[in-house]
Write a structure and sequence with these properties.
With about 240 residues, this protein is mostly helical. The chain is about 65% helix and about 0% strand. It has helices at about 5-20, 40-50, 55-70, 75-85, 85-100, 105-120, 130-140, 155-165, 170-180, 190-200, 205-210, 215-235, and strands spanning about 25, 40.
C-alpha cells in the first residue's frame, strides 16, 4: 500500500529530525526563554506542539521560519512544512469528512496552499501559524478534491495532450510541451515532471528524487504544470 503525500512528508521530516539534519534556531535571539540557546528541529517541533507555549513564542518561531523560507528556500521550506503537518492533517480530515472528495487531491492542494503562503506571508503577523493553516485550508477547499461532486471536464490536461492533432508521426506530445516551454507557459522542469507522471507512470516521489527536488516542490510544480498546460492547449497557441 502506497503512502499518502502527508505520510511521505512526515517520513522525510522524521528522517531529518532523527539525523539532526535540520538547521538550528537561536532561541535567545527570538526571545524564547530556554536554558539552551540553540533549538534543533525536534525541539522546535515539541515546543510548538506544547499547548502551554505562549502565543508570542509561537509567533516568533513561525516568523523566523517564514523569513528563512523566503530568503533561502530549502531546507527551511521542508522544515516549515514538517512542523505544519498536524495542521495539514486536520485540514484534510475536515474537508474530506465535511464535503467528501479525493483525499490525495485535498492533501496535495493543502500542501500547495501552504507553500504559496510561506512565500507570501508577512513574518510579523500575529497568529502567523493560523494564517498559514487557513491558506492551506482555502486552497484545498477550492481544489477538485475538496468540492462537492460535480460534473467533471471531459478531458484532463494529459487527456487533452493526447487529443492534439499529430504534427509528426512520432512525439506530438513532446512538440506540444516544447511549444508550451518556449511560450513560457511552463518551465522545462515542470514539463519533465508532467511527462514522467502522466505518460511514463513514474511515482511522484521517484520523480522528486530523480530531479533532486524537495517532494512538496515537486507536488507544486506538477499541479502548476497541469493547470498551465490545460490553459495553453485550450488557448490554441
Amino acid at each position: 500500500m502506497s503512502l499518502s503525500q502527508l505520510e511521505v512528508l512526515n517520513r522525510r521530516f522524521q528522517e531529518f529530525v532523527e539525523a539532526d539534519a535540520l538547521p538550528s534556531l537561536d532561541a535567545w535571539e527570538l526571545g524564547v526563554e530556554t536554558e539552551q540557546q540553540w533549538l534543533r528541529g525536534g525541539q522546535v517541533r515539541d515546543l510548538l506542539a506544547d499547548r502551554s507555549t505562549d502565543q508570542s513564542v509561537r509567533d516568533a518561531i513561525w516568523g523566523e521560519l517564514v523569513r528563512r523560507v523566503q530568503r533561502h528556500g530549502e531546507p527551511w521550506k521542508t522544515y516549515a512544512i514538517g512542523l505544519m503537518l498536524p495542521a495539514l492533517r486536520r485540514v484534510t480530515w475536515r474537508i474530506v469528512n465535511k464535503r467528501g472528495g479525493d483525499r490525495s487531491e485535498v492533501e496535495s492542494a493543502a500542501v500547495v496552499g501552504l507553500v504559496e503562503a510561506l512565500g507570501a506571508a508577512d513574518p510579523t503577523r500575529r497568529k502567523l501559524a493560523w494564517s498559514l493553516q487557513d491558506a492551506a485550508y482555502q486552497r484545498a477547499l477550492g481544489s477538485d478534491g475538496g468540492r462537492a461532486p460535480a460534473p467533471r471536464p471531459e478531458f484532463s490536461g494529459a487527456d487533452l495532450l493526447r487529443q492534439v492533432p499529430v504534427v509528426a508521426p512520432e512525439g506530438h506530445v513532446d512538440l506540444v510541451l516544447a511549444r508550451a516551454v518556449r511560450a513560457g507557459a511552463v518551465t522545462g522542469v515542470e514539463a519533465d515532471i508532467f511527462v514522467a507522471i502522466k505518460f511514463e507512470d513514474v511515482d511522484l516521489e521517484a520523480v522528486a528524487d530523480r530531479l533532486r527536488l524537495p517532494y512538496p516542490e515537486c507536488v507544486f510544480r506538477l499541479q502548476n504544470a497541469e493547470k498551465e498546460l490545460l490553459s495553453f492547449i485550450l488557448s490554441g497557441e
